Amino acid sequence: MNIAFAGTGSINKIHAQAAQNLGLELEAVVNHRTESMTEFGKRFGITRQYTTVEELLKTGNVDALVVGTPNYLHAPQTIAALNAGIHVMVEKPTSMNAQEAEQMCEAAEKSGALLMVAHCWRFDPDVLWLREQSKHLGKIIRTKSYGVHSHWGPSGWFTSKELAGGGALADMGIHALDTARFLLRDPRPVSVYAKIGTYYKDFDVDDTGVIIVEWDNGATSYIESGWWQPHMDGPEAATQLYGTQGFGQLFPTKLELPTDNKQKFEVIDSGFEFPRKEHGPQSLYDAQLKYFVECIERKQTPIPGGLEGLINMKVIDAAYESSRTGKVVAIK
User: Fold this and answer.
1) In the predicted model, is pLDDT for residue 179 greater than 90?
2) How deeply is 175 buried, as exposed, middle or buried, from its count of CB atoms within 10 A (0-12, 13-18, 19+)?
3) DSSP bridge partners of 195
4) Which residues pair with 2 in a beta bridge?
5) DSSP readout, 179-210?
6) This prediction's pTM
7) Of 123, 311, 127, 94, residue with least CA distance to 215
8) Per-residue pLDDT tens over the stretch 209-261
């Protein structure tokens, strides 16, 4: 399988390493900055280098494209590739907004090429363990999730509304959002209430946010997002599940189930290391790309695919609207 990469930043270096680990043919790279593209090409042995996705598509011989560019490029680059029959895995957030995400889904449906969104935590062993073990918790009433950087935050295009669309919520909060939804077995959102703002740095996107999502299965999710926060209650994607018959959490990953003595509870430990040596290890991205390749080979719609990306963008859009208006926003 010949795979190409749009973008040469840190995330696509991780995806390219995953491709090498899986024995794929790293065929081409796209970036408007020649120096960055040359360095990327040397590191991964890629000689075909282009300044635009359109130039790449004209030359052909590519089966799949990984889009890891700034958010404003996600939709146009993905749609161009899908229209050419190229399968795409696009980084999160799917797009700048839900409208673009809908266009991406339409392009995939029309062309028959597969669209996957890189919500990486769905492939994490801890997350998969808790999702399986959550059957012991009864009905999940509420969740708490965190997508926060403490004493740190990104720079460059991440902090530009024109290039990123949103700030910490779109960058980090979406990890917490998708992880909570995955653990709840992908319910549909009903409504969102949010308070979002910029308090720690001087840029035109948010660095602080709290959102509350009501799902159609009756659960409610509380999600924190932030950059440069003075404290965080858990690492990226850390999530807690409050069920009618017990409690479960990620990082450290465990269950707490009541015993016959109502004043005590039994702790079921996942056995996974915490804290990890590396919170987002390379193996996580290897597993994600392996799944994408398997979906292509089996002609199977990926999950998380375009639909999951679209639903998350609807929640993000509604959160920003709720924060602007001070009202609960319904999602259709």
Assistant:
1) yes
2) buried
3) 210
4) 25
5) HHHHHTTSPPEEEEEEEEE--SS-SSS-SEEE
6) 0.95
7) 311
8) 999 999 999 999 999 999 999 999 999 999 999 999 999 999 999 999 998 77
Residue 167, CB-side half-sphere exposure with 13 Å CA sphere = 29
Return d(Cα 84, Cα 191) in angstroms, integer: 36
CB atoms within 10 A of CB 45: 10
Residue 271 has pLDDT above 90, yes or no: yes
Longest Cα–Cα distance in the chain: 69
Helices (H), the chain: 10-21, 34-44, 53-59, 71-83, 98-111, 125-133, 161-164, 168, 174-183, 282-298, 306-325
H or E segment and range at residue 224: strand 220-229
Alpha-carbon distances, residue 86 vs 8, 64, 113, 114 (angstroms): 19, 5, 6, 8
Mean pLDDT estimate for the chain: 97
What are phi and psi for residue 108, nearest 5 degrees?
Answer: -65, -45
Give the single-character DSSP code of 32: S
The two three-digit tokens of residue 245, written as one number: 């018959």
> Is the per-residue pLDDT at 192 higher than 80?
yes
DSSP, residue by residue, 99-155: HHHHHHHHHHHHH---EEEE-GGGG-HHHHHHHHHGGGG-SEEEEEEEEEEES----
Segment 278-301, tens digit of pLDDT: 999 999 999 999 999 999 999 999
Residue 264, pLDDT score: 83
d(CA 191, CA 314): 10
User: How far from chain centre, in Å, is Cα 108?
Assistant: 19
